[in-house]
């Protein structure tokens, strides 16, 4: 896996991959104001909570969420041993690596693929399997390892915030165990600071070994209005800094920035079709409409990737 390149306040510039635009200035001015004990906006370290979406905010998400590619790969491997699991068209498409066929099944078909591929396995074995997949799989368009397609400017932002005594969390619609497989190495965010969608789990003795197993039912969807609920349940405090990229993050941004005291909302706008991908209003993945229309009047920063970022990917 690609290790996170974490910025340090020892550098003269804590965000070297950000261009000297309004975006960079607003971030550093906010952080300076909430960390200066003499500032009227000072926030104690215990309340410096920062949360970030993952897909499209910390790493790429086109042409489909990377977890879907993992699910299809696992279905293919499972079906080699037991072809009888292919009981529907989306599952058959997944076994063939046919993304269009999987997506043709709509949300129901996608959930079926995720459920079958993510159940009947212990949490520990699942995380190991995800890591093994990340070590060998490559993106169908860029040819890069999936965990190399993380955003260097966001790695610097995470490091900058932690240097200033912020606690950084991931709050994602993606699967919590999937993200926990790589979050610490990729972003320096430990597993206990990852909030995500989750299947039901159960405790069982398997061959005498105490085991937590992933079951074939969804327990919680950490998306849209589910994100504030997940934050409240897992963190117990309203964040003062929140970053997202799509309307799936709108309620999280809305709730976090509605709190008392200084607040910062950030939206990564995918405007760079040459270095990454350009999409927003009409995209089937990472659609951004309300954030673009309402974000500026709410005081949220809209980050223009093409203009505000000197580079996209970490140096390899």
From TrEMBL:
GO molecular function: hydrolase activity
InterPro entries: HAD-like_sf (IPR036412), HAD_sf (IPR023214)
The keyword Translocase belongs to this UniProt entry's keyword annotation: no
Pfam families per record: HAD
Keyword set includes Hydrolase: yes
Keywords: Hydrolase
Protein name according to UniProt: Haloacid dehalogenase-like hydrolase
Protein source organism: Sedimentitalea arenosa
Top-level taxonomy: Bacteria, Pseudomonadati, Pseudomonadota, Alphaproteobacteria, Rhodobacterales
